Amino acid sequence: MASRLGVGVLILAALLGPATAQAGYGYVEYTAAAPVMMPEGAPTSTPVPPTQTPPPPGPGLRFGFYRRSCPPAEYFVKEVVAKAIRKNPGIGAGLIRMAFHDCFVQGCDGSVLLDATQANPRPEKLGPPNFPSLRGFEVIDTAKALLEKFCPGVVSCADVVQFAARDAAFFLSGYRVDYRLPAGRFDGRVSFENETLAFLPPPSFNLSELVENFRVKGLDVDDLVVLSGSHSIGRSHCSSFSDRISTPPSDMDPGLATVLRGQCPSNPNFTNDPTVVQDIVTANRLDNQYYKNVLRRKVLFNSDAALLTSTQTASKVQENAVIRGRWERKFARAMVKMSLIEIKNAANGEIRKNCRVVN
């Protein structure tokens, strides 16, 4: 096994290439305001240990799934993600978003990765919530190509998406979001654009709509509040919150609304829709600053502000804002729970050789 790992490291050094993503129009575009320095390779600092028991793996999934079939699988993905984030931290935020968008449509099955074909000209990645704002596809491609050279036909694209999101959260949080992830997912063969609008919550949703949207996927109110914390990093297109800075004004902090009106056109459209940072305090850091911003009404989306419209969710926001380390631990658990949504099996899935097309 040690010799195989050594070969894998040599392959890794030879094959890792730059990962880029295009800016685009959509619900949220994740790009960093400015680069941050990331460690070379795996970090040496000690991450904050989780204090909550992770949810049990889903049917057919287990921790360390590739320990024998492809020992360096998770290491390879982490190194690819680390390289991409060193170039652009916004790619890491995009990978976290990709995991969410994949799981909420057809389950966590890599269906969001499928390109358009003659047989299926409108897959998920072309849906309004995804195109062309969803980013990080090149990172998944790089990791998958590396895995196929070392252990072909073994690691699913669905698992690569979830590994990449976990690793992105790890790096962007300063190693504070750290969790084990069960694997063994199969890749789906179905991907439809119209399902993105049916299952992905838009930024205009109110609290009851958000709660129902998450409930359908087996996630509760706490998961909703905790996963909303991913809005602590990245950028958003003005069109996603233009209604909140128009006249009459919303409940957004007046100072922030004034700043945003100076950055956004009055009527953003496909050709004129700039982006702004989502977290004006720690734009490049995945942390609990988001909840402090919610309390100060310095957030962009109606779905963010909606967290203060009930006593239950407002108290959760308060706890995540003030209790040190609480949100990071809960976010790790919620990400694992989300990764178990509607898992495919050998009967309705496959292990794709190329993440962009079915076998």
How would you explain this protein's 3D organization?
The chain is mostly helical and 359 residues long. The chain has helices at 2-15, 73-87, 89-103, 137-150, 157-172, 194-199, 207-216, 221-227, 254-263, 289-295, 302-305, 311-322, 326-338, and strands spanning 235-237, 275-277. It is globular, with a radius of gyration of 20 Å. It starts with a helix and ends in a 21-residue tail after the last helix.
Topology summary:
Layout: H1 2-15, H2 73-87, H3 89-103, H4 137-150, H5 157-172, H6 194-199, H7 207-216, H8 221-227, E1 235-237, H9 254-263, E2 275-277, H10 289-295, H11 302-305, H12 311-322, H13 326-338
Antiparallel strand pairs: 1-2
Helix pairs in contact: 1-4, 2-3, 2-4, 2-5, 3-5, 4-5, 8-12, 10-12
Would you report the number of β strands? 2
If helices are DSSP runs of H or I spanning 4 or more residues, what is the number of helices?
A: 13
What is the N-to-C succession of helices and strands? Answer: HHHHHHHHEHEHHHH
Give the structural class: mainly alpha
CATH architecture of the domain at 62-234 and 278-339: Orthogonal Bundle
EC number: 1.11.1.7
Binding site for Ca(2+) 2: 279, 282, 287
Signal peptide: 1-21
InterPro entries: Haem_peroxidase, Haem_peroxidase_sf, Peroxidase_pln, Peroxidases_AS, Peroxidases_heam-ligand_BS, Secretory_peroxidase
Concise overview:
Substrate binds at residue 201. The chain is mainly alpha-helical and 359 residues long. The protein has helices spanning 2-15, 73-87, 89-103, 137-150, 157-172, 194-199, 207-216, 221-227, 254-263, 289-295, 302-305, 311-322, 326-338; strands at 235-237, 275-277.
